[in-house]
Write the structure tokens for this entry.
Amino acid sequence: MIIKAQKVLWYVCLTVLSILLTNCGKSGKSKSDNKKDSTKKENVVKRHDEYKIGFDKEKAQKTASGIAYTIVQEGTVAPVKGKKAYIHYTGKFLDNQVIHTSQNKEPFWFRLGTKNSVVIPGIEEAVMLLKEGGKGNFLLPPELCYGSQGYDIIPPNTPLYYEIELVKLQ
């Protein structure tokens, strides 16, 4: 079941990438469409100033890379690069708006420490801070998320908040 989901995810990623490459440099939008998109992104950015995620950044532990985190539930076995990490996650803007989640689905998995990881750098680093069976809340700086380019509805230079559970290591 997980392998089938991964193949579907891989196919979707390749399809999106080919569409992006095909349309590179072509707008296809009218000025009014571009203005609507710009306004939408500005509104999303403004909402991030409303910090409603219920995360006490001052009491959190901090990593050298800038992740602020709290461990909600201790786990048992520390992750090791090369292992498969099966996780449940919920990613949010700082206004508590959910961006994406794996809840009510099979756990999402990825191999830790690979060069071309399928997750953003902040997620991989966050998972390495957990232990199998553990849960944590993570405030990721923009440079460990989608950086200055942004992605889809995520504007450039946007910090993100993740609730992550390391379900198992394999």
Q: What stands out?
A: Residues 93 and 116 are 25 Å apart (CA to CA). The two ends are 16 Å apart (CA to CA).
